[in-house]
């Protein structure tokens, strides 16, 4: 049963404050990394974040950032030719191999493919991961999706950022308030209402990205009929063309984060 979200106003205020404190600093930081930063990418299924944000994660790792990927599920239901248990074990091996190429640590949540619960327990689980990992930035799914695991993950993450910051919310790790911004990756399943807002040039990371994502059999074209590799390579060309970067990926952020307050023209 889908739980009605209980904290829209407070979570948006908390994220607005973090956005004003530092969200606009991430694009500049992509060129010159600050020491000690951590980026946490949270995907509904193993392969989601590597496909949509892998090139940026590669760049940030090379700049000295710590990169962590939280896989909410293995996506073990994605191969009709084998059982979920067998394919799940395969997807975990593939995730570890792909994330190693990216330079990312992998965390595997306890949820099942197609069954990520949009509830309090899931929010507390992700909040505790945030407290443990201590990310400066979080990357996850856009809020609207044709796949409920994606939209549920997005809703969970938005509220978990707030929960992680509250002293009164007790989990295994102490409260953490250091999240400077949440970025939503561009995914063909999450396109409704998604508007590219921040572009990152990733031309130098494309070959390493290809090596990483093709560790997954479904991306290599051996399971799904959807041409994942062709789609995201073509998308990087489109985003690169409009940004003048040759190859690029784009992210959206919450509307309130797009507000800029200036005293004069920049």
Structure summary:
This protein has 266 residues and is of the alpha/beta class. It has helices spanning 8-23, 25-29, 48-62, 84-102, 120-133, 148-165, 206-213, 228-243; strands at residues 38-45, 66-73, 104-108, 137-141, 181-185, 198-201, 248-252. It has a 7-stranded mixed beta sheet, with helices on both faces.
Structure description:
By secondary structure, the protein is α/β, with parallel strands linked by helices. The protein has one domain (8-251): 3-Layer(aba) Sandwich (Rossmann fold). 42% of the residues lie in helices and 15% in strands. It has a 7-stranded mixed β-sheet with strand order 3-2-1-4-5-7-6, with helices on both faces. Strand 1, helix 3 (48-62) and strand 2 form a beta-alpha-beta unit. The longest helix has 19 residues, at 84-102. It is globular. It starts with 7 loop residues before the first helix and ends in a 14-residue tail after the last strand. Residues 1-25 and 27-33 have low confidence and may be disordered.
List the helices and strands and how they pair.
Blueprint lengths: L7 H16 L1 H5 L8 E8 L2 H15 L3 E8 L10 H19 L1 E5 L11 H14 L3 E5 L6 H18 L15 E5 L12 E4 L4 H8 L14 H16 L4 E5 L14
Parallel strand pairs: 1-2, 1-4, 2-3, 4-5
Antiparallel strand pairs: 5-7, 6-7
């Amino acid at each position: 049963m889908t739980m009605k979200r209980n904290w829209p106003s407070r979570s948006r205020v908390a994220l607005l404050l973090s956005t004003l404190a530092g969200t606009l600093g991430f694009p500049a930081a992509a060129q010159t990394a600050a020491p000690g930063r951590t980026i946490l990418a949270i995907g509904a299924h193993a392969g989601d974040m590597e496909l949509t944000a892998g090139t940026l994660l590669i760049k940030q790792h090379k700049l000295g950032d710590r990169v962590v990927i939280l896989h909410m599920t293995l996506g073990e239901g994605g191969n009709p030719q084998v059982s979920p248990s067998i394919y799940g074990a395969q997807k975990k091996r593939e995730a570890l191999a792909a994330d190693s190429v990216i330079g990312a640590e992998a965390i595997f949540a306890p949820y099942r493919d197609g069954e990520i619960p949009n509830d309090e327990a899931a929010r507390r689980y992700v909040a505790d991961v945030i407290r443990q990992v201590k990310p400066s930035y979080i990357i996850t799914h856009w809020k609207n999706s044709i796949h409920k695991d994606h939209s549920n993950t997005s809703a969970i993450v938005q509220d978990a950022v707030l929960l992680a910051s509250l002293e009164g919310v007790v989990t295994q790790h102490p409260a953490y308030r250091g999240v400077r911004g949440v970025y939503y990756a561009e995914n063909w399943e999450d396109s409704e209402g998604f508007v590219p807002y921040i572009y990152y040039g990733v031309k130098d990371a494309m070959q390493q990205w290809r090596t990483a994502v093709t560790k997954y059999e479904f991306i290599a074209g051996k399971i799904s009929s959807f041409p994942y590799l062709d789609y995201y390579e073509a998308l990087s060309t489109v985003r690169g063309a409009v940004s003048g970067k040759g190859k690029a990926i784009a992210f959206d952020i919450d509307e309130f984060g797009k507000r800029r307050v200036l005293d004069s023209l920049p």
